[in-house]
Every structure is written in C-alpha cells, then in structure tokens.
Amino acid sequence: MPSSIVAAASWHESHSFSAFVVAPHYSFGVQTPARPDRNIALELIRVTEAAAIAAARWSGRGDKIAADKAAVDAMRHVLTSVTMDGVVVIGEGEKDQAPMLFNGEHVGDGRPPLVDVAVDPIDGTRPTAKGQNGALSVIAISGRGTMFNPGPFFYAEKLAVGPKGRGVVSLEATVKENLTELSKCLNKPVQELGVVVLERPRHDDLVAEIRDAGARVVSIGDGDVAGAIATAWPHSGADILMGVGGTPEAVIAAAALKGLGGEIQSRLWTEDEELKKSASSLGYDTQKILTTDDLVGGDCFFCATAITDGDFLRGVRFHDFGATTQSLVVRSKSGTVRTIETFHRHNKLNEFTIAGF
After folding, report:
1. CB count in 10 Å sphere of residue 199
2. Which of 53, 90, 317, 350 is a good FRET partner for 170, with 20 to 30 A between their CA atoms?
3. How confident is the model at residue 121 (pLDDT cuts 50, 70, 90)?
4. CB-count exposure of residue 34 (10 Å: 0-12, 13-18, 19+)
5. Nearest to 3 by CA among 353, 347, 354
6. What DSSP character marks residue 147?
7. How far apart are CA 270 and CA 309, in angstroms?
C-alpha cells in the first residue's frame, strides 16, 4: 500500500489530477501550449501536512509554544525537499530566534522557480493549544519580488469578501454602506449577513456599528486567515471579514482569495505614533488601500492543512492506521481549488516530519 492515498476535487477546471503529473516546467510567465505549468501547490501540500500533523500532537495540551515549535520544525524539514529557490517574506520569528522560519531565510532545494514565500505553521496557536476549532497550517508562494513585505507593520485594517462581493465594498466606505451594498449584490437581507470579526477590545465600536446596521457578528478568537477564506467558501456562514488583524495574515489570505475569486483590501495600522511618523521614510504609505494584487502579485499558490476542525476542512485525525489530513490547494492563474484528503501510515510518518514521530 502506498504511503499516502490522495483524493482530490477540482473546481473551475476540467483537467484531471493526472494532468499535473508531468516533468517540471518552471514558469511564472506565459503558459506553454504543450503542457500545463507545474502546480507547485500540489507539492507544498506535503509541507502543510507535516506541520499540521506535528501541531496536532499538541492540540489540547495547553502549550502553544511547544505546538508552534513542532509545526515550524516539521515545516522547515519538508521545505528542504521542495524544488524551488524560495525566500521567506512572511516568516515565523526573526533570525536570532531560531529555529523559527525567519524573514529572509532561503528555503527549498535551490533550483528554479525563484519565489517569495509566506508561511504560518499555525494560524491559530491558541485554538490549537486549547483543542478548539479553526486552526490551520498554511503556506503561500508567488514569483520573486511580487509579495508585499509588511516590515514593522504587524497590523492592518482588512475587508475580505467572496467572488460576488468583489468590487462592491471599500475600506473608504462606512460599515453600514458596505453591508448595504453587499446585501444587494448577494441578494440577501442585511439581517442575514455574517460578518467575521476578531474578538478583541479594539473592535468594540466596530461590533456596535455592525449590529446597528442589522447584521450578524461571527466572532472568532484567532485565525483570521481562515476567517477571510470562509467569506469565499460556500455555506460557511461568513459573507465578509472586517476589522484589524495581522498584516502577514492579510498577505497569506490574499494568495488564497485570489484563487478563490474573492477580494481582500488592507491598510496598514499601528498605534505606535513614532512608527506612523517614520512610515514614509521606511517606504510605507499608511493611507494607501492595498488591493489583493498589491499584497500578492502575479500567479500565486496557496496551501492549507487543517490542524483542528474548521468551516471548510476537517482537522487531523489519529487512528490505528496512522493519521488523516484534509487540505485546501489553490492556484490563482488557473482558478483551481482542490480539497485533498490524505491518509498517512504510522510507519511512514517519519518521512514527513522530524518533530516527535
């Protein structure tokens, strides 16, 4: 029996899975007529699977630092085998805090394609530690020089919507205006809209505005990458994401939403007055609304594996056979969206991760 059995489902495209099992063709430019470009996301799934399995061993054990380290170690281990010359633009920790995947680190085996890489070994460390829903392991890549680097700006205002809401909402509009316009394009009463908001004190006024407008607040404790993706996922109950969240997460979510047909808008946000004053000299415009393409340009790839159960993927399951994972694989150029279920044998898990197996 093979070490893994993969079942894949594809949206928007008639190609079978076997169409991608070809000799690598490294291109982020024009597709050749002879064969499809290599969908590197189908290789990155091994990276997020490894991180998710490692993190799931710590789910519910109350130690988010240990869970995060296990996921990072597993992710780094498998990344070395991926055929790409990657530079981490969105990382996990700084260089002097090894073994985290730090910004500027080179990953992959050093061969083309040249890519920017964004990683979040655990999007939702607190839910993982508490054994709660909504934790993912995620990675995104795009052509070299096409991924936004948030630098010292850890937070940003965000609006995220699915395909039907694209071009309808704006960070320049009021909450009520956005919900009214979204209601029209979705052909759904405002009272039925689900608005995803991170549960933070800074959002008290935002929550009050949403409720005054008549919409429903879908409060999440962590994991706004998953929250943004949910707005573009059928039957998730999420129609729009609002509020201030992590800027790195905005970049990662942009890669996913670009392939899902949705949209994210972002504007850098900080309470640090000195950082606001120095933003321009650092090359940042805190007034500019960053579009999906500003955050991730060109052809991009996104992969996520659920650590715990969520709106669109089931978390890791351990059993006598080994472990089962569910993943989401997205490519923007082709618009393909795949959900993949993989079965990992116990005696083969060491081939995926060095973290505790």
Report:
1. 12
2. 90
3. very high
4. exposed
5. 347
6. B
7. 32
C-alpha–C-alpha distance, residues 191 and 117, integer Å: 39
Rounded CA separation 69/351 (Å): 18
Q: Which residue bears the tokens 């994401």?
A: 241
C-alpha–C-alpha distance, residues 242 and 128, integer Å? 23
- In the DSSP assignment, the letter for residue 296 is B
* DSSP, res 60: T
The residues near 27 (Cβ < 8 Å, ≥ 6 apart) are 37, 38, 113
The pTM assigned to this predicted structure is: 0.84
- Give the separation between CA 292 and CA 195, rounded to whole angstroms: 19
Question: What are the residues facing 301 on neighbouring strands?
Answer: 141, 331
Alpha carbon dihedral 61, 63, 65, 66, in 10-degree steps, equals: -50
Nearest to 20 by CA among 341, 351, 336, 325: 336
Following CA atoms 98, 101, 105, 108 in sequence, which dihedral angle do they give, to the nearest 10 degrees? 130
Taking the CA of residue 252 as centre, how many other CA atoms within 13 Å lie in the half-sphere pointing to its CB? 32
Strand, helix or coil for residue 294:
helix
Please count the CA atoms within 13 angstroms of the CA of 215 that sit on its side-chain side: 31
Residue 127 CB partners (closer than 8 Å, separation 6+)? 133, 134, 135, 221, 222, 223, 308
Q: Which of 83, 72, 64, 196 is nearest to 139 (CA)?
A: 72
User: Quick check: 137 and 305 in contact, CB under 8 A?
Assistant: yes
Answer for the pair 266, 290: CB distance below 8 angstroms, yes or no.
yes
Q: Which helix (H) or strand (E) holds 47?
A: helix 41-56
Residue 248 CA, chain-centre distance (Å), reads 9
pLDDT tens digits, one per residue of 261-309: 999 999 999 999 999 999 999 999 999 999 999 999 999 999 999 999 9
With both helix axes pointing from N to C terminus, report the angle between 175-186 and 204-213 in degrees, rounded to the nearest 10. 50
Helix residue ranges per DSSP H, 187-300: 204-213, 224-230, 247-260, 273-278, 292-295
What's the confidence (pLDDT) of residue 83?
Answer: 92
